[in-house]
Specification:
Structural class: alpha/beta
Strand content: 5-15%
Order of helices and strands: HEHEHEHEEHHEHEHEHEHEHEHH
Helix content: 25-40%
Number of domains: 2
Shape: globular
Radius of gyration: 21 Å
Number of helices: 13
């Protein structure tokens, strides 16, 4: 199985990994992934092997791919599935020389596969997992459902211990409610305005016994720091310590933090889909992308709420140019609406815990 690049896209393949294990219980299953998303599948109980390949440009990249292709060929795979469809992924799938190679019917790479599946170019209001599942149709694998085929990322014991230590060092007690708010997005077209994040963080942190952790990707550390500073400025001096940043988290640590948290708030990016592999209540903010394509794919019994602006003729878009020029699919999402959704999630989670016998 080949899926390169984005974290969320790799998360979306995890139901297929489990389905392939059930379909081929005695097979040796290998997953080829790049470093950034490797932790998603590193501890999968369904895989026998995970191959992590770096990304390199120019002649070094060509040599790397040819060498990797040679190793794949020597492994004598019977079946190769390209969940990506990009030039590099299709090349590596072809170089494997597997007698059955399944991929998308994309010109000019369709010849690299023995079975190609149509993938329309237009944005469809259909989940990405269902789109990927088209590749499995010829393998007699039943269509997926969120409750029967959820996204998965097994917990990492060391990451869990590290998060507990970091929370304790920050003065977070075991009984404290933790709200995690992720301010990064995979593109400017998916980023909710920072002042809206500030308002949301400050409102959630105004409750006693609650701590709000602002997270971001490495490129958005300054933005996260600005949100923290702005939110603290809206709070009384004694309450400002309720808002803080956790620093850099590995994907395993982020998952452990979310499993420990009372709510997660964020846009359509990798951390949203990491959150979907846990039981944390989710408030998902969707801008230009239709939520039908990438809403949290997990058991509907778990708490999730989607926040989006309906009725915009420009939505969804290709995220190249904002036609109205004001990013209204995001700027029209009111912070009060997000806060209210988060409070509902937190209250519902607390009520469920009270009803659950110890």
């Amino acid at each position: 199985m080949v899926r390169l690049r984005q974290i969320g896209d790799v998360v979306f393949t995890t139901p297929a990994i489990a389905a392939l294990r059930r379909r081929f219980p005695d097979a040796h299953l290998t997953y080829l992934v790049e470093q950034a998303a490797a932790p998603v599948v590193a501890n999968s109980p369904y895989l026998d092997e995970v191959i992590v390949t770096p990304r390199r440009k120019g002649a070094a990249g060509v040599v790397l791919d040819l060498t990797l292709g040679w190793h794949l060929r020597r492994a004598h795979y019977d079946l190769a599935i390209d969940f990506h469809g990009g030039p590099r992924a299709s090349l590596l799938t072809w170089l494997s020389a597997a007698p059955v190679r399944i991929g998308y019917d994309i010109f000019p790479r369709r010849w690299m596969y023995t079975r190609s599946v149509e993938r329309p170019r237009e944005l469809r209001r259909r989940h990405s997992i269902e789109n990927q599942w088209d590749l499995l149709r010829t393998l007699d694998i039943a269509a997926p459902t969120p409750e029967g085929n959820p996204v998965e990322m097994p917990p990492d014991v060391e990451a869990t211990a590290a998060i507990e230590e970091r929370l304790a060092a920050a003065g977070v007690t075991p009984g404290a409610e933790i709200a995690v708010i992720h301010v990064s997005a995979s593109s400017p077209f998916r980023r909710w305005p920072l002042p809206s994040f500030v308002e949301t963080v400050a409102a959630l942190a105004s409750r006693s016994g609650r701590r709000v952790i602002v997270t971001s990707g490495p490129s958005d550390r300054r933005a996260a720091a600005g949100v923290i500073e702005g939110a603290r400025g809206k709070l009384p001096a004694l309450d400002r310590e309720r808002v803080f940043g956790g620093g850099d988290f590995s994907l395993g640590e982020l998952r452990a933090l979310l499993e420990r948290s009372a709510v997660y708030i964020g846009g359509d990016s990798g951390p949203l889909h990491i959150a979907a592999t846990t039981r944390v209540p989710i408030v998902a903010l969707f801008g230009p992308t239709p939520s039908e394509r990438s809403f949290p794919w997990r058991d509907p019994a778990l708490l999730s709420e989607l926040i989006e602006v309906d009725g915009l003729p420009c939505r969804p878009c290709d995220q190249r140019v904002c036609e109205p020029g004001d990013f209204r699919c995001l700027t029209r999402i009111d912070a009060g609406r997000v806060v209210a959704a988060a409070e509902r999630m937190i209250a519902s989670r607390a009520a469920c815990r009270r009803r659950t016998p110890a």
